[in-house]
Amino acid sequence: MTTLAAHGIGVSTPAGWDGRISVRRDGSADQLFSASGTRLFQTRSRPVMHLANFGFPGAIGDFGSGAVELMGENDVFAVLFEHEPESTATALFRSVGVPQNLTAREFEPANLRRGIPGQSGYQAFFQESGRAFCLYVVLGSHARRARLVPLVNRVIASLEITPEIASGATA
User: Domain coordinates of the chain in residue numbers?
Assistant: First the structure.
């Protein structure tokens, strides 16, 4: 197992898995005021974590574009996408805690953001440690989901999320 940790997110990945945690630079603007009263804006950036049991290409989109097209039938790809802190107050993020013990029944081709024949997906919105997230998982084969979901569960079980600190950075 290899431990990957950054921006208040940590996970252990099995040998042969690829992973990265990066910060998107497309965050929403916070309105700030200078000492003179001038309005300033500061962009809040949020982390996104990508994990897969296959090697990533150089660049991939937040939800796996560029990677999911390369998946074989034994491959899994997972994204942990952080949303703005205010999202924790919405109904979409009312579920508390990282989803655990996913089942093959929860994976469906209709859950994919971009339908690729044969693949299957899962998506959940939740909050953990006062932070709002989407967990998105793609399986390379819907027919093999009963065999692939335990691989996903093993990695998700190791996921740790710490609270955000006041400056907008994470612990």
Answer: 2-161
